[in-house]
Every structure is written in structure tokens, then in C-alpha cells.
């Protein structure tokens, strides 16, 4: 069954590939765009058709098995199908599901796009629905995968809509403040910028604490919406020579 569905997905992707879309999106990927170039509306229409058609035969476990194969061998759109299929079963998530999905970072998640879609559509639900704790997400800070580490702040970005507070978010991301991955830094900065809108004093104090040590991309992204002159207070303090 899994092999058959994998083939059906791949045949669809090949049939609906568009070199113009590949060229358009290649600029956003340093190592090139490893995808078919499928129009978003075409992708979404087929997503809905498959989820409806497979409703009586596919379960969360079967979608996870299919997802393992798509992540291991697929291009960007195939991996995106894996994510949306698992999203359709979110009412059945367990802590074990979270760990299982976490394995995808070691077998096939290799860019910011797949990471961010997974965070937005799937990983955030585990916290919103209290399937896992924030401490569980925090464990990913120690991952060798920069994409799994990026998933920590990016998953929290989605929770800003749910009223995420600094007292919850900051302890989760603080261990990442010295991370040297530009993608992790951008994720942290984006989260801090979102938190700053409602909690300016807390986030500014946090930035002042870290500004002389953390990566500059964190500060740049976090202060992006601040007044140009006001941003200057977050510049690195030059140490005087003794």
C-alpha cells in the first residue's frame, strides 16, 4: 500500500512539475531548489482529493510510514504531502507521534522551507493541544540537526497567535542564543520580534542581556520593527582595550 501511494504521489508530482516555478524559488535556497515546481492551488486541490479518497484506509500510523519514505527519498513537494497528510490526523497525536516526526530531521529534512511548514502545520498542534510540554520541545535544542534546532523557535512563532508569553518562550530558546547556525538565529529573531509587539520591555531586557554574545542575526531580526534610532541601543558594546 505504501509503495503504491508513494508511486501515485511521485507520478502526480512529475506530471505537474513546472520549470518556471523551480527557477522562481531557486533564489531562496542556497543549495538549489530540490523540488518539482508545483503550483500551490494544484498541490492543495490534490491534497484534499487524496485525504478524502484515503479516509477509510489510511490511519495516522500509515501516514507516518508513508511520510518516512517520502522524507527519505522525496523532493520538497513530496515531503510537503507527508506533512499535510499527518496534519489531517492531528486529533490522534500522542507524545510518541512527536518523537516519530522528530526522526524526519535525521532522514530527510534538509532546508528551512520543509522545517517551517512542519512547524506551522504539525508541530505547533502538539503544544496548542497540550499533547507535549514545552520542556519536551526544549529537548530538541541539543540536536545535531540545525533544522531540528530551528524548529524550536519557529514552532513557538505559531503559538504567538495563542498568546504565548515571554515567561514560557524565553526559557525554551535561551539555550540556543549562542547557536552559530544562521537559520536558527533567524528563527529566534523572528520569535523575539513577535513577542516584542506585546511584551516590549521583557524582550528588550532579554536582548540587552544577550546582545554582546549572541549572533547578530538574532538581534537584526528581533529589532526589525523598532525605530531606526532606537535600535542603536542593541548594538554590540565594544570592549575597551586594557
What is the secondary structure topology, with strand pairs?
Blueprint: H1 2-15, H2 19-26, H3 40-53, H4 60-73, H5 76-87, H6 95-102, H7 104-107, H8 112-128, H9 134-138, H10 146-158, H11 166-173, H12 182-196, H13 200-210, H14 216-222
Helix pairs in contact: 1-4, 4-5, 5-8, 8-10, 10-12, 12-13, 12-14
Q: Strand-residue fraction?
A: under 5%
Helix tally? 14
Order of helices and strands: HHHHHHHHHHHHHH
Radius of gyration: 20 Å
Number of domains: 2
The CATH architecture category of the largest domain equals Alpha Horseshoe
Helix proportion? 55-70%
Provide a descriptive summary of the structure in words.
- The chain has 242 residues and is mostly helical.
- The chain has two domains: 1-92, no CATH class; 112-237, Leucine-rich Repeat Variant (Alpha Horseshoe), CATH 1.25.10.
- It is 62% helix and 0% strand.
- It has 14 helices and no strands.
- α4 (60-73) runs antiparallel to α5 and α8 crosses α10.
- The longest helix has 17 residues, at 112-128.
- The termini are far apart.
Amino acid at each position: 500500500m505504501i509503495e503504491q501511494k508513494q508511486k501515485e504521489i511521485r507520478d502526480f508530482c512529475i506530471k505537474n512539475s513546472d520549470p518556471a516555478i523551480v527557477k522562481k524559488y531557486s533564489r531562496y535556497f542556497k543549495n538549489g531548489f530540490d523540488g518539482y515546481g508545483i503550483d500551490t492551488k494544484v498541490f492543495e486541490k490534490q491534497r484534499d482529493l487524496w485525504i478524502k479518497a484515503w479516509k477509510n484506509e489510511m490511519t495516522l500510523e500509515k501516514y507516518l510510514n508513508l511520510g518516512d519514505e517520502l522524507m527519505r527519498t522525496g523532493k520538497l513537494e513530496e515531503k510537503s504531502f507527508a506533512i499535510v497528510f499527518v496534519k489531517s490526523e492531528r486529533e490522534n497525536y500522542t507524545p510518541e507521534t512527536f518523537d516519530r516526526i522528530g526522526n524526519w530531521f535525521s532522514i530527510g529534512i534538509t532546508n528551512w522551507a520543509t522545517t517551517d511548514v512542519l512547524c506551522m502545520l504539525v508541530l505547533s498542534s502538539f503544544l496548542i493541544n497540550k499533547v507535549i510540554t514545552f520542556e519536551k520541545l526544549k529537548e530538541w535544542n541539543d540536536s545535531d540537526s540545525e533544522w531540528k534546532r530551528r524548529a524550536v523557535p519557529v514552532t513557538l512563532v505559531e503559538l504567538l497567535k495563542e498568546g504565548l508569553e515571554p515567561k514560557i518562550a524565553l526559557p525554551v530558546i535561551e539555550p540556543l542564543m549562542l547557536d552559530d547556525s544562521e537559520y536558527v538565529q533567524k528563527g529566534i529573531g523572528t520569535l523575539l520580534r513577535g513577542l516584542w509587539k506585546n511584551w516590549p520591555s521583557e524582550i528588550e531586557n532579554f536582548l540587552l542581556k544577550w546582545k554582546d554574545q549572541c549572533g547578530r542575526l538574532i538581534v537584526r531580526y528581533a529589532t526589525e520593527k523598532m525605530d531606526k534610532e532606537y535600535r542603536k541601543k542593541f548594538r554590540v558594546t565594544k570592549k575597551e582595550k586594557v
